[in-house]
Amino acid sequence: MKLTHSQTIGYQVSLPPSTTTYLSFKVHRRQHELVTPAKPTPRELKPLSDIDDQQGLRSQFPIICFYRPNLASNLDPVQVIREALAQTLVYYYPFAGRLREGSNGKLLVDCTGEGALFIEADADVTFAEMEKADALLPPFPCLEELSFDIEGSSELLSTPLLLVQVTRLKCAGFIFALRFNHTTTDGAGLSLFLKSLSEFACGLHEPSVPHVWERQFLTATSSARVTHTHREYDDKVEHEAVVVGDHLVTRSFFFGQDEISATRRLLPPGLHNTTFDALTSFLWRCRTVALSPDPNTEMRMTCIINARSKLRNPPIPSGYYGNVLAVPVAIATAKDLMEKPLEFPLKLIQEAKSSVTEDYIRSVVALMATRGRPMFETARNYIVSDLRHFYFDKVDFGSWGVSRCTVESLRLVLPRFQE
């Protein structure tokens, strides 16, 4: 792996066509470093679970958090977070290791203690300027400058599992960016790590939730069997049925009480539905209309499910930070999605979600172990992840309060209010 030195970068942000303001600022990144655990940690090989190392998770995912200035504090966020990271890695020491590939493509974490990548940076822009220019909304327009991809660091094997960049703003606010290897953790697991990181930054001496590695909870035994039909891992889908080109764009849409109520008025009175169900069915239909595929094209909607509550024999410990997710799929023709009442896609989504049981998860584990860890199907697929219940918008490093947070991946951003 080649780790390159950093330099001063001038980056101009091009905002959406409806915005007339352009935001231009420079980011000066110091030479990157490796932050190692603050104390010695075990040197061992830890296999990932059969949910962890599936093909669909073999990638890096970034999050980015924005912090307003606290002019009453003289603390340096870079120093606070660097020290807290070293302390957190004592407990989450596999994150200081490197991925290796074992027999039959099985991934293992080599707990080398080499550390996580850390970048200190400064930007000549203020929080208020970014907020005014709508530069805090996903898709974040200059993520690559604030979560810098050091050459070679995004490879799957033998590279750091975490990359952290802390960028000071000229107003005394800052930006915290973290990139993680999804094979090692999911949103709920990363929330535990971030909670511990923020606790150390605030002066605690150990995590409030004990960490649990035990990946054997979701590793297939010799008697494991595939007991469900997993359409999410179909391998005979015609990938060119919907042509994707440069005309596709990403935009942020924010739904409050009024928008949710308007969506629910499209459904029959008394039909049970959650905010997630109503919005996802509505957006699945809108996206299908926008793509305008052949009416007979099979369209998909995948909802990423945190399945921890489904597992009871044995139950998943509260501190388990491995992947415990399922990707059930709802399937319908484009014609049906566009022409049938909104309750049609809503019921399909509800059925997909309710299909996730303990036996279903065990079946996925067996599928991964016996059929080569297939990739979940992405053709004509609208993939939605509900991040409301994770810790991302609560990350508090002390003097600066909680963050404005963006996850740059497939997502559904919803407001916080009662169902």
Sequence-ordered SSE layout with sheet pairings:
Blueprint lengths: L7 E6 L9 E7 L3 E3 L9 E3 L12 E8 L9 H15 L6 E4 L5 E4 L5 E8 L3 H6 L10 H4 L15 E8 L4 E8 L5 H15 L55 H8 L10 H17 L6 E9 L18 E2 L2 E5 H6 L3 H12 L3 H13 L10 E5 L18 E4 L12
Parallel strand pairs: 8-9, 11-14
Antiparallel strand pairs: 1-2, 2-8, 3-8, 4-7, 5-10, 5-15, 6-7, 9-10, 11-12, 11-13
Helix pairs in contact: 1-4, 6-8
Brief descriptors of the model:
4-stranded mixed sheet, 23% helix, 15 strands, alpha+beta, single chain, 419 residues, 8-stranded mixed sheet, disordered N terminus, 9 helices
Helix content: 10-25%
Q: What string gives the helices and strands in order?
A: EEEEEHEEEHHEEHHHEEEHHHEE
- Percentage of β-strand residues: 15-25%
Helix and strand content put the structural class at alpha+beta
Largest sheet: 8 strands, mixed
> Which consecutive residue ranges, at least 5 long each, have pLDDT under 50?
1-20, 410-419
Cα-atom radius of gyration:
22 Å
Q: Summarize model confidence as the mean pLDDT.
A: 88
User: Counting H and I runs of at least 4 residues, what is the number of helices?
Assistant: 9
Please provide the count of β strands: 15
Span from first to last CA?
Answer: 48 Å
**Mass-distribution shape:** globular
